Amino acid sequence: MLQKPRGTRDFLPDEMESRREVESRMRGVARSWGYREICTPEFEELDLFTIRSGEGIIQEMYVFEDKGGRKLALRPELTAPVLRMYVNEGKTLPKPLRWFYFADCFRYERPQKGRYRQFWQFGVELIGADTPIAEAEVIMLAHEILSSSGISFTLHVGHLSFMRILLKELDPFDQKRARMFLDKRDTPGLREYLSGRDHAALSDRLIALAGCRDLSQAFEITGDFPERERIEELFSILEEAGICYTLNPGIARGLDYYTGMVFEAFADNLGAENQVLGGGTYRLAHLFGGEDTPSCGFAVGFDRIMVARGERPAAPGKSAGVAFTPEGRPWALRVAGEFRKAGIRTPLDLTGKSIGQQLSGISRFAEYAIIIGGKERDSKTVTLKDLRSGIQKNLSLDDALHEVCSGDTR
Hints:
Layout: H1 13-32, E1 36-37, E2 43-45, H2 47-53, E3 63-65, E4 71-74, H3 79-90, E5 97-106, E6 118-127, H4 132-148, E7 153-159, H5 160-167, H6 172-183, H7 187-195, H8 200-210, H9 215-222, H10 228-240, E8 246-247, E9 258-267, E10 275-282, E11 295-301, H11 302-309, E12 320-324, H12 329-341, H13 355-362, E13 368-372, H14 374-379, E14 381-386, E15 392-396, H15 397-406
Parallel strand pairs: 1-5, 7-8, 12-13
Antiparallel strand pairs: 2-4, 3-4, 5-6, 6-11, 7-9, 9-10, 10-11, 13-14, 14-15
Helix pairs in contact: 1-4, 4-10, 5-8, 6-7, 7-8
């Protein structure tokens, strides 16, 4: 028996309904902020991803040659494709551009809970705005999107200028090593490594910065620098908006990618792999042939969101199955069509069994049964049965629709 490829999943209807419900909530929030949906190809030229990350990323990607010998890759993330699309299609559009996407990505890595080779991202890109309130908007939007998903999370917001100020004392190799220790929260390792490089005092300052949760104290550790006023305004806007966040000036991840503000979100009920969102300010358009353009965005790990939610069924919609006799079939088809137009899930019984047997099958998936025989056909009525209470009565089509929509057949 053939199996699905490693690192991929099959989704049965109940799970798909839960995923679509959360996805719909996220889309609705993004649209309410003025963001509009975009879509890019599932595969791109390989150079799109190596031009920024180097050839080493190829080991983590699905790479292939097409019949014309072109090197292509299934997208491992979506920011680069979105900025490529901006350079190709959107650079003359009025700024700022507010775009969002929901799509699958592919990475060749070891599968584990919440991490798959095919996975989904919900993301937002704000292109062409370079102000503190633009950065704050993206953070506020991320907070609302995560809140809409129904998970409990913590939001960490920082700015890479703090870390850059301290790390500039080191050469590039030692900077990379120090960031590795900081990312792993390995303070003993960081202290030992920098002490061996005659930077013991710097390790103390880096560790103090990583643990700092007060903006004024962070500036005391690093000293003043040109971005101070902008940083203070950003956090002032977040306070004004009532956003619950944790200041984290010690974020070191993404120093080669992000240019300033950075933020991350962590689900409260996941283990080590608990990051569900990451984002910040960046400039990528010039790498793909465009002008240097300020951008800000984030990506949500949708699969981890669903793991964090746990086994939670989608909100049930109205449903009614149609049981009918052969002579009632023409009217049953018309009635079912009207119920569907009203937004009610209305499957027909397909077995041709007795009405009693049809009702038994319908009771497994529907709240209501619509029973139609020759009498209902002739009178252009329906017999509506509430399968929860057992109450049934003969109604006009309009009255039956009203009672199912209102949920009341008393």
